Every structure is written in structure tokens, then in C-alpha cells.
Amino acid sequence: MPNYRRVEIITGAFVLLGIAAAFWLALQVGQVGGFGNHGYRLVAEFDDAGGVRPGADVMMAGVVIGRVEEVRLKDNEKALVVMRINDGVKIATDAFASIRTKGIIGDRYVRITQGMEEEYLADGDEIEETESALNLEDLISKYIFTSSGKKE
Amino acid sequence: MTAILGRIGRMALGIVARAGDLLLLAMQSLALGLRPPWRLRPFMEQLYAVGVGSLVVIAVTGAFTGMVLALQGYYTLAKFGSESLLGAGVALSIIRELGPVLGAFMLIGRAGSAITAEIGVMRVTEQIDALAMMAVNPKARVVLPRLVATTLALPVLVAIFDAVGILAGYVVGVDLLGVNPGAFWAEIQAKTTGEDLNEGWIKALVFGFLIGAICTWMGWRAKPTTEGVAAATTHAVVLASLAVLIADYIMTSFFL
Amino acid sequence: MPRLCLRVMLRAENLSKRFGDLVAVRPMDLAIPAGGVTCIMGGSGSGKTTLLRMLAGLLAPTTGRIWFDGHEITALSERELFRLRRRMGMVFQYSALLNSLNVYENVAFPLKEHTDLPESVIAKVVAMKLEQVGLRGTEHLMPSELSGGMMKRVAFARALVTDPDVVFFDEPTSGLDPISAGVITTLIHEISEHTGMTAIVVTHDVHAGLAIADHVLIMWQGEVIARGTPDEIRASRDPRVRQFIEGRPDGPIPFSRSRTPYWEDLISRTGAPR
């Protein structure tokens, strides 16, 4: 073993290297969770959540702006999806939420389409306009009865 | 029949007694650490021997783990056309599971066996008794620093393992297999959370303590002969590896 | 020379030790006076090292109690025992130097652990102790670079560095050349005489033992079969004592440990012993 002074220095460098690695990992990993909760919460009701899970992405214009925090049944009928949206992302009160699939068999995610209003949603608000997950039957009916495809 | 039951009973009691003895040694040593005199030097020296000594082997293991995961993951994911998920697959496997477990195995092989052998030899050559006769408690001086060193060194080593592994996975996935670099990092961001990281740290901390407790105890209780120390070293590696796997299963089932 | 002893340093009552079925030390009472050299002598396997380890508190006795200068060490907590050990020193049979430290650090170790002396003072004390054992100048050597005899002398210096009240010696001369053995035995004698240190020496070296001891115990099969001054031992009529101090192969203490007649093994044994 080298002399004690060197042991101290090398051990210190070793621990610093570990801390640097840990920091780098924390930066690479998703920004939500872990170190306190950032962002604000929005809720949305869907007729069919289509199996979206906590942790799924919330996207706007193809950019991840948050994450699904909780999915639960409301009034034994509808699906309530709680989302955490990153700070700094403004969503108009008339924005529109839909549940989509990445690719054909990819993950489900919540897509939010920006609205026209000048007022923005705050913590705990609800996105009123939603579109449920597409399933095959919906797809077919949409194709056939083009006029009334949209459910609330 | 009763004879068989009796044997099983004796075996079970034996295991419980040993486990108790193991925990007792670790706890007594930790309790001694709460009292003065405090000396930093033995801890530094052990952290150096255990941590710095295992750094290279852990980094190399991490690199190859990341590379293999990237290759295998790509092969599987390409069948579903989801190569973009490669980064997330590599990162999640390493952070939650392979980093702590493989890191623990390498620590056992590199440092744990050395700890058992070292303490066993100190026992054979009466160095443990000599410390006691110099009014230095060998539990505080010999066992405790090694126990603390493995417990603290493993999380540090696992952080390095994780980082090296993910970078190596990136090199193989992006540079060799042509996965989109943006998708690689974006999927890591999207699919891993701070909780995944925390699971890795906590596992590393627990594994480090288990390794320290088992390997110091094996050396402490080694039969004071050359064969005794050799046998204790082998047993320490086997027992510590098993303990890590069992603890890993229990902890994973709690976290999920 | 026998000296007048006022104080008992170590006392044991009904002390015994068994390892499984093997009785290493049979129940005995013991009193070791303060100051002077007490030699515990006996052949190998007579239980003398076991006795020494019990007296030093390294081994828990099966029965009996031990007092060290009035403190009952068989009843002390670990913490109190370690405090009491600051007054003890021990030279082990195979030296037991800490092999990660060099000679200087080994000898300085007890001082660094238990005192706040500045390094310059410690260095002087270490140099003095190493000079006493004739090893000044070897400070930088590691234990692995020393011969067995040199290691033992370093261990001697280490045991004396804190000027303890009692020093235990486990076979201090075994494995030493005659000159080193002579130096060590003379040192034990002189230091005990000059400082009032109590030396408890386990040895099978009859001549050295009888030469330096003030008080002798002779052990045989876990029992003390004779005790007294060296002169009393020399004058003993006990055939076992006579055989031991004269080193004769035949007598009441059998040299051979076999239980079956020799010829039986030679005639009847056809394969390897089982």
C-alpha cells in the first residue's frame, strides 16, 4: 500500500468520481421524480383510457411535456388520468387531450393539442375536451360513418 | 423418521445460530464505532483497498455488460421495430438490476475474499490476539473498517458501473448498430425515473453491508489453520453471492 | 534469587479449561506475585499455553475465576477488560507483528493508540526499545523481511513500549539462536528486576527458565505438579519433575503417546492406518 497521504488523495478522487457518475446518471434520467416533484397537475376524464399507465408520456406537438402520474376509475364509469406537466409549459383552457399510440404497437401516451384561448390551465385544473383511446372498432366505425366519429 | 426430523431441526438451529453470530459480530463492531477513539486512517485504508482496488474490474465489467445488453437488446427490439427503445432497455436493466448485482459479485471476488483471507490470517498468526493485548479492540480496528468500507464503496462503484455501462451501451448501440443517438437518450429520459436510481443505490448499500458482514465474519470465525482460512475464503464467496441474490429478489419484489 | 513478595498480581481459583472432551487445564488455584519472573514450564501439550491465554483474558475458562491486581477479569465487560489490558503486554510465540506495518510502526503502535505523545517523543521511545533488543536501524523493514528471531525481538520491544505492569511471554526463546535466546532471557530478567514489571513466562526451555525465574510452576497433563523457587524445583524428589528438568526420555512421563503395543502394529497392520 502506498503511503497514507497518497491513500487519502486517491480515495478522495475515487469518491468524487463516484459522485460525478451519480450526478451524470441523475441528469440523464427523466427530470420528473426522484428529487421532489416539479411541475403542476392537470386532470382529464376519458371514456376509455386505453391502458395508459402511470409514467407514460404527455406530449404536445411531439414534445414530451410531462408524465402520467395516476390513472383511476371515476364514478365506476370513466377513466380519470392525472398528469404532471413540466413548469413553464402553458396549456390553454380549451386544449384538447387524446390518448394515442406510438407507432402501431408502441406505448400509449397522452397527446395534448394546444387551444386558442388566452387563459391557461393552473394546478389541479381539468382538460375538458378529451378523446378516448382509439380501438379497432372505433377506427372502423369512424371509417364508415365519417360524420359522427368523434365522441366527446 | 424422528431421526430425520431431528437432523433437520439441528441443521435449522445451526443456521439460525450462525446467522445470529454473524449479525452479532457486525452489530457489536458497529456499536464500537459509536464510541471514541475515532480514527479515520483505518477506514481510509480500507476504502482504498476495497473501493479503489475494485474500480478497474468494476468499470470493465460495467463496460462489457452495457455492450452485451446493447447487442442483445438490439437483436430483440429490432424484431418489433422498436430499436429506439434500446437506450431505455440498457439503462433500466443496468440501473435497477445488473449494476448492483454484478457490482456486488465483482466486489465479493475482488475484495470480499481478500477480507476473509486477511482476517483469517490475522487470526492464525495471533495478530487479532496481539491487538487485543495492546488494548485495541480488534472488532473496532479490524472488522468495523472493512464493514464500513464495503458498505460505502459499493454504491460508489455501482454509480461508476452504471455510468460506464450506459456509455458502453451507447457506443455499441449508436456507433456500431446505428440506433438514432437522440432516441437513445430521449428514451432513457422518458422511461427511467429517479426512483429507479434510488432502487439501485439502496440495493448497493444493502449488498455492500451484506458482503462486509459475511466476509468479515467468515474470517473472524475461520478455523485457525491454513486449511481453515482457505475453506473460509471459498465459503465466504459462495455465501456472500447467495446472500446478494436472495436479498436482491426480496428487495426487487418490494420495489416493484 | 527469590524475593519477598507483598502483593499478588494474578490470582486464579478453581481454574480449568476443556476443549470438547479434551481437558487442557485441570481445576487449579494459582497466585502469581507482583514483580519478578514467574515461569510456567512443562512439555508440549501440558496446558501451559492454555493457562497463559486464560490469565491474559484471551480465552474464557470453563470453570473458575481470575483476578488481575484485584479486578476479576472473568467478570469484566469487554470494555473494562480492554481498559485493564493497557497494563498488560504480551509476546506471542510467533511474534504476531502487524504485517501491514513496518518495524517502527509496530513498536510505536501501542503508544500511538493510547497516548497523545508527539511523534518526536514516540520516535525516541521506539529507538530506546529497539536498542534494548539490538534492532535499532531496522525501523523501515517490514515483518516479512525479518527472520523469526528478529521478529520476536521486535515483538518484545513492542510489548515493553508502554512499560506495562505485567508482560506475558509465550515461548520467548523458541526458534531463536542461542545468542538471541540468551539476550531475550537476560532482558526479561533485567527489566523485571529494574522496573518491577511482573513477567509471566511460558517455556519448555528448562535451563533458561530456571536461570531467570523467581517462581516456577511445572505443569504436566493440565496439572501443576510442582511449584516453588528454582532451587526448590532443582531439589525436588518428584520423579516427574526430575525427568523433566533432566530431559530424560524414559520415566513416569512417557515419551510415546501410543496406547497399543508397538509389536502389534508391526505384525498385524496390513494396510494404511484408518
Task: Walk me through this protein's architecture.
Chain A is an alpha/beta fold and 152 residues long. Chain A folds into two domains: 2-32; 39-135. Chain A has two helices and eight strands; from the N terminus they run αββββββββα. Chain A is elongated, with a radius of gyration of 22 Å. Chain B is built from eight helices and no strands. The model of chain B has no long low-confidence stretch (mean pLDDT 92). Chain C contains ten helices and ten strands. Chain C has helices spanning 48-55, 78-84, 103-114, 119-132, 148-160, 178-195, 206-212, 230-234, 239-246, 262-268, and strands spanning 8-19, 22-33, 36-42, 63-68, 71-72, 88-91, 166-170, 198-203, 215-220, 223-228. In chain C, the strands form two sheets. In chain C, strands 6-7-8-3-9-10 form a six-stranded mixed sheet, with helices on both faces. Chain C has a four-stranded antiparallel sheet with strand order 2-1-4-5, covered by helices on one side. The chains are: A alpha/beta (152), B mainly alpha (256), C alpha/beta (274). At the A-B interface, helix 1 of A face helix 2, helix 5, helix 6 and helix 7 of B.
Number of helices of chain C: 10
Radius of gyration of chain B: 21 Å
Instruction: Identify the overall geometry of chain C.
Output: globular
Strand content of chain C: 15-25%
Order of strands in the sheet with the most strands of chain C?
6-7-8-3-9-10
Gap between N and C termini of chain B: 42 Å
pLDDT averaged over residues of chain B: 92
Strand content of chain B: under 5%
Strand element count of chain B: 0
Structural class of chain B: mainly alpha
The string of secondary-structure elements of chain C, in order, is EEEHEEHEHHHEHEHEEHHH
Tell me the series of helices and strands of chain B, N- to C-terminal. HHHHHHHH
Helical percentage of chain C? 25-40%
- Total domains of chain C: 1
CATH-wise, what's the superfamily of chain C? P-loop containing nucleotide triphosphate hydrolases
**Amino- and carboxy-terminal Cα gap of chain C:** 52 Å
CATH architecture of chain C: 3-Layer(aba) Sandwich
Poorly predicted ranges of chain C? none
